């Protein structure tokens, strides 16, 4: 099992898109508005990997998980954390989180930040178990109720 940073040699964006969509499929019908994963394309993932830092976990040629991170002024943002449903619960998310923590250290950023949908209580519990705490709630455009929770993890002080 290998955790690999995406670079210019990575050419498996169709498989990566399929992994993200499969991993996020359980949200369909549960969250409103729908996940931004539905707006992803092979080309937008290519751009995302150029604009952000991406990691994948693979066994041989099989992609099992991914995450994208992006340095912000005071933290490292974590997005599109996706694990193949057949491989969830095996510590792959923690492996990707470790890659994010290492990247944050490289940039001198003491905090990780992510957003999760308000309806996905199982995700809130997982992220809390990983050391994240809720820091705010927000609403997507056009909504008057909170739709998203921001969570942060302090890596050092």
From TrEMBL:
It holds the Pfam family Acetyltransf_1. This is Putative acetyltransferase. PANTHER family: AMINOALKYLPHOSPHONATE N-ACETYLTRANSFERASE-RELATED, AMINOALKYLPHOSPHONATE N-ACETYLTRANSFERASE-RELATED-RELATED. The keyword Transferase applies. InterPro entries: Acyl_CoA_acyltransferase (IPR016181), Bact_Acetyltransf (IPR050832), GNAT_dom (IPR000182). Keywords: Acyltransferase, Transferase. PROSITE patterns: GNAT. It comes from Sinorhizobium fredii (strain USDA 257). One of its GO terms (molecular function) is acyltransferase activity, transferring groups other than amino-acyl groups. Residues 1-156 form the N-acetyltransferase domain.
């Amino acid at each position: 099992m290998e955790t690999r940073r995406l670079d210019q040699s990575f050419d498996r964006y169709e498989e990566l898109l399929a992994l993200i969509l499969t991993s996020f499929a359980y949200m369909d019908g549960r969250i409103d508005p729908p996940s931004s994963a539905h707006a992803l394309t092979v080309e937008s993932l290519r751009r995302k990997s150029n604009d952000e830092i991406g990691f994948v976990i693979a066994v041989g040629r099989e992609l099992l998980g991914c995450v994208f991170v992006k340095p912000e002024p005071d933290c490292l943002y974590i997005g599109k954390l996706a694990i193949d449903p057949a491989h969830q619960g095996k510590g792959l998310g923690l492996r990707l989180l470790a890659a994010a923590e290492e990247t944050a250290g490289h940039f001198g950023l003491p905090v990780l930040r992510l957003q999760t949908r308000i309806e996905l209580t199982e995700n809130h519990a997982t992220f809390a178990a990983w050391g994240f705490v809720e820091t705010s709630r927000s609403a997507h455009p056009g909504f008057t109720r909170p739709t998203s929770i921001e969570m942060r993890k302090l890596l050092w002080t």
